[in-house]
Amino acid sequence: MTPRQPRIALTFGDPAGVGGELAATLLASPEVYAGTDVLAVASADEVDRASRHANVSPEFADRIGAGRPVLADPGRRDPLPDVLGRVGEDTGRWALDGLRHALKLVRAGEADGICFTPLNKTSLHLAGMREHDELRWFARQLEFTGVTSELNVLDKLWTARVTSHIALADVPDKITADAVAATVTMLDESLRDADIEHPRIGVAALNPHAGENGSFGRQEIDEIEPGVRAARESGIDVAGPFPSDTVFLKARAGAFDGVVTMYHDQGQIAMKMMGFDKGVTVQGGLPIPIATPAHGSAFDIAGTGKANPQATFNAFRLAATMAARRMTQSAHK
After folding, report:
1. Which of 246, 250, 266, 314 is 20 to 30 A distant from 110 in Cα terms?
2. Phosphoprotein: present as a keyword of the record (predicted)?
3. How far is CA 6 from each of CA 39, 60, 282, rounded to the nearest angstrom?
4. pTM of the predicted model, to two decimals?
């Protein structure tokens, strides 16, 4: 029996932002989704509107496997919010409905992974999302209680973080040896899912100069170093902690495939400086591959067709690669 292609559910993001036009551009680019079956999670009017904004004309098939995307309409009762450049409960609800339908497709075995275009967290919260971010929302929907982290990907460099969307003042108390080891392990597994067979991981310090032997804080001595050591003893190729102002210089020079940072901006600033228009966010640790462009919903250019689709293309390809890897692993069990 010939193995089938991976199937990716593509959602259109926040209808007030650039998500729709990015999705439409991808659907009109067969070279991007070659080797993958695409389920476009959208209504026909949503596709039409997004296609006008992007000035493209995607072609659809009436069945999966025919070489073109298929429409997977969530069947929403509400009309498409025909607005641009604003937050709102209606746009947040529309976006959440799309994500729920994508998860439904995965649970039913009709999709193997998800790529979603940019969302707006304020709109999602207005629509009732209680979690801090999409990652925690996905985890709750999937009833997943394991280790998770947003992973940021730029070309072949990945980052994970021990803490994420919390106040900077709360970070030090969350840095524990167990949390560091668990994040390193999760990043190692994710890199292997992306076909990196022997990942090399560097870990950033929390304090200036990696604490300078305890002069500027003891987190490196008491928590980060023991966490790195535990991960190394489990068989992972990991080193650190390194001062956070130099660890990305080492990574950019090819020393590491992935970097574990201690808090959100420690890694995000470096990654976005190196390639804002290309970066991808992976919802790391979840039982299914989920990826999205690392940039936001860009309300200021929504509807103009100016949004750069490269990060969306990269996110889609990465979701497909991870899905294919997991399909292969499942077939060999």
Report:
1. 314
2. no
3. 11, 17, 17
4. 0.89
